[in-house]
Amino acid sequence: MQTYLEFEKGLAEIDGKAQELRALDSSGKGINAIAEATALERKSEQLLKDLYRNLTAWRKCQVARHALRPHSMDYINELFTEFILLSGDRNFSDDKAVVGGLARFNDRPVMIIGHEKGHDTNSRLFRNFGMARPEGYRKAVRLMDMAERFKIPIITLVDTPGAFPGKGAEERGQAEAIARTIEKCLNVTVPLVSIIIGEGGSGGAVAFATANKVIMLEHSIYSVISPEGCASILWKDPEKMREAAEALKLTAQNLLELEVIDQIVPEPIGGAQRNKLETIRNVGSALEQMLCDLEKIPSKQLKKERREKFLHVGSQGILSN
Hints:
Elements: H1 9-25, H2 34-53, H3 57-64, H4 72-79, E1 80-85, E2 98-105, E3 108-115, H5 121-126, H6 134-150, E4 154-160, H7 167-171, H8 174-187, E5 192-201, H9 202-209, E6 213-217, E7 221-223, H10 227-234, H11 241-248, H12 252-257, E8 263-265, H13 276-294, H14 299-312, H15 315-320
Parallel strand pairs: 3-4, 4-5, 5-6, 5-7, 6-8
Antiparallel strand pairs: 1-2, 2-3
Helix pairs in contact: 1-2, 4-13, 6-8, 8-9, 10-11
């Protein structure tokens, strides 16, 4: 069942009327409403195209957070085979907000690590809404170490509002764990590709996205802070999140222009939630090309290029000003 966003209310009304007409037609009462329902469906299709043709930054935030977008486990189940889930940080516990393990991608052994938000109330609570604790980042470091030992590529899937800000997480060294993960990303000598599939929030996202190549879905977002958080700090008013979203330059299109990311993967009209399989396959195609290109580069060069990539981020804007 489709869930409509705030700016899709008009679309929801049209779709609802079309469904009612089709239900009347199939009721056996001699009512022929198919023609009118078909006309409404055409109108709905055109409205959907118009809505998504030029989304504002805030609307992209809403799409990126849509509950029905495909999450990490959807990508793992569809794109990868022989997935072996690896758990725990060998120190404190297993963080369910981070999933990872060995798998095969197009018959190529890889290490896959991703944030997992869950798909319903119970699983979202179980996964802590994709907000990792220190043990989640330490698990990621452990899996990256393993990938480097076996000389296999690392693929990360980013989808988190940010690292978990709770008291326990801070007591166990949240900032240090994130910093260590970023450090590990910079130092591995195997190909590292990151895909931002929904929200890329704060240091919790950067910890997984310090990669040779960063791919973003068309309507995903990636920023140092959420628009609501930014508005609360700068204007003392979280209702100014629309202005904050524009100022943060958090869309895939903004970030490609700023050279923070390397490629945008198109989504179906209406967002990834309207055709999960097509979205996942588009990501798979982009990922295959990225890995083919990176596997041709010597290991020392991979590390050097990755470090230079992040030293270069922002330098164009500074020079132009």
